[in-house]
């Protein structure tokens, strides 16, 4: 895993698949160094966050799987108090916007993948990051309402973060903001854009290493005018504006990018992957489930 050169990184060697079950030793060491992820810290962190959850009136009656709690502990480098605060924000989000976490329809939600509105690309960057591609212009609100996009966004992030490699290395996001303003501009309200920021940044246990913006449209400029007031300075530093799509190759190996962005990738249909994410047992635990009380 030593070769990090964009031009020479090869699929199957430095470039690993998005769906990978076994974490290579290089990345296990990375988790220990960067996230303090060791067996002792995991055990201690779980004890601490469970105590905080059990003592809080908003979370004491909610049950979370250990693997889910570890997502929040890892993203906060085993600071249990900070992990608890972020998890509590997710609980509040679920309470305020319950339809984002319920009433899933496999056929409807899968349209976000089938129409390539939201895609998890099949290969990771050579640094292990998962690549999330948003192609705004492929979204036709009359065919897939905004509420369904919100559901799909939650589901994509939740399923991606079940993978330990994604927890360790995080995401790189490409927003293709080409847009028909007559179709999309009315959805760029402060309320919707704040929900986008709050949900993805403050509620979900994701690490965003880079955010790339391409094909900047009138809609994109309106979105940025509102969004920039919400963003932290740290996140702003990770946002990269591109005048042309070709400059994405300065940040991504050619092998992992779709052809329309100068890459070699032809097929990146994630429909079957998102359908698997909608297994009943996975949906039941999305964001925690009510604790069963002893009678």
UniProtKB/TrEMBL annotation:
This protein's GO CC annotations: membrane
Could you tell me one molecular function GO term of this UniProt entry? Answer: phosphatidylinositol bisphosphate binding
**Top-rank taxon:** Eukaryota
| Span of domain CRAL-TRIO | 108-269
Q: Which InterPro entries match?
A: CRAL-TRIO_dom, CRAL-TRIO_dom_sf, CRAL/TRIO_N_dom_sf
Q: Please report the name of this protein according to its UniProt entry.
A: CRAL-TRIO domain-containing protein
